[in-house]
Amino acid sequence: MKVLLADGLQKQSIDELEQLGLEVCSKHFDASELGSELKKYDAVVVRSATKITKEVIDDELGGNLKLIIRAGVGIDNIDVKYAESNNIAVKNTPNASSISVAELTIAHMLSVARFLNISNVTMRQNQWNKKKYVGCELYGKTLGLIGMGRIGKEVAKRAAAFGMRVIYFDSLYNEDIGDYKFEQFDDLLKKADFITLHVPYDKKRGALIGKDEIEKMKDGAYLINCARGKVVDEAALLEALNSGKLSGAGIDVFENEPSTNVELLSNPKVSITPHIGASTKEAQQRIGREVVLTLKDFFNIGDKVVIGV
Ligand SMILES: NC(=O)C1=CN([C@@H]2O[C@H](COP(=O)(O)OP(=O)(O)OC[C@H]3O[C@@H](n4cnc5c(N)ncnc54)[C@H](O)[C@@H]3O)[C@@H](O)[C@H]2O)C=CC1
Ligand SMILES: O=C(O)CCC(=O)C(=O)O
After folding, report:
1. What is the DSSP pairing of strand 165-169 with strand 67-70?
2. Which run of H or E residues covers position 270?
3. Which of 97, 103, 284, 290 to mutate to test the pocket of ligand 2 (most atoms within 8 A of CB)?
4. Torsion angle defined by CA atoms of residues 46, 48, 53 and 55, in that order, rounded to the nearest 10 degrees
5. Does the beta carbon of 72 sit less than 6 angstroms from any atom of ligand 2?
6. What homologous superfamily is domain 98-272 in, according to CATH?
7. Which are the catalytic amino acids?
8. What is the pLDDT along the chain (309 residues), one digit of tens a residue?
9. Which of the ligands is closest to the CA of residue 195?
């Protein structure tokens, strides 16, 4: 049984796969060669860098591939329908990184509220902008959370611990969840001081937050996107930051990655990270364990193991 790790995996999990007798190759391929390479493998494990498109699957057809594992949550980099229609199963590791992404979301909120991002730049340029960087507390502010799933719930808990009032919108629910008050989408946009996004990207819908939605937000609000880049229209966001409509934005994910949107990346009101929501030792360990378990279950090899989280 051969497994390709197209975007790496933590070492302990690679060792476990080898102990199970799997032949493991850790190598990243360009889109042009990926499909034909995949013919040799029974399973492939990807993070977000590798895209398994219809074209890649077409190039693989007639090969051995039976399973694609997304070592992460979002499966928008995989043509799931097309894979499944060609008898290739698609699995992910949905629970492993929720806490890491939630913590990064809170970090971006603090970063923009207290000028951490820009202080880190300007102090290294010998500037002492003590008077300029007058921020705001999270305490007492309203967090409008869009997407109350696994990550959203972890963000809500942490925001509540900071003394924030949490309101949320989610297309699955329409009732308050404990102290978290459900609001219609437009009402949330109007009421929130901070808005954080925790939804998958829906290609058919396009950007959930564009010019019209930003227009409805409070003047001086902050927007945090640790979900998917295309959930926010970057041009509209930039315009709102430049006009002063928004006070700041925290961004882990970009319309195109790696991002080359220099205007956005260099904007002093923006706190940026290079899509590292799941990049903690703990999340990667949990992801590795889930990948091993998924492979064991799918190919029915070795004893069942209990995954600790
Ligand atoms: N920055 C990073 O490294 C990471 C980003 N993510 C992103 O975070 C997203 C959320 O992850 P989870 O919380 O685990 O997913 P989840 O499936 O547990 O929660 C998503 C929630 O969003 C809701 N939703 C979907 N479309 C919506 C819409 N248009 N409006 C309002 N609500 C909507 C769903 O009903 C669901 O409750 C993932 O889809 C992924 O894109 C996930 C992991 C790491
Ligand atoms: O580790 C990655 O590739 C990014 C994580 C992510 O965005 C996800 O799990 O959806």
Report:
1. unpaired
2. strand 270-272
3. 97
4. -80
5. yes
6. NAD(P)-binding Rossmann-like Domain (3.40.50.720)
7. 228, 257, 275
8. 999 999 999 999 999 999 999 999 999 999 999 999 999 999 999 999 999 999 999 999 999 999 999 999 999 999 999 999 999 999 999 999 999 999 999 999 999 999 999 999 999 999 999 999 999 999 999 999 999 999 999 999 999 999 999 999 999 999 999 999 999 999 999 999 999 999 999 999 999 999 999 999 999 999 999 999 999 999 999 999 999 999 999 999 999 999 999 999 999 999 999 999 999 999 999 999 999 999 999 999 976 555 444
9. 1
Give the residue carrying structure tokens 């290739």.
88
pTM of the full structure: 0.96
Domains of the chain: which residue ranges?
2-96+281-299, 98-272
Angle at 129 between CA 127 and CA 134, to 5 degrees: 160
Q: How big is the chain, counted in residues?
A: 309
Check if CATH label 3.40.50.720 holds for domain 2-96+281-299.
Answer: yes
Ligand 2 pocket test: pick from 28, 51, 70, 73 the residue with the most ligand atoms within 8 Å of its Cβ. 73
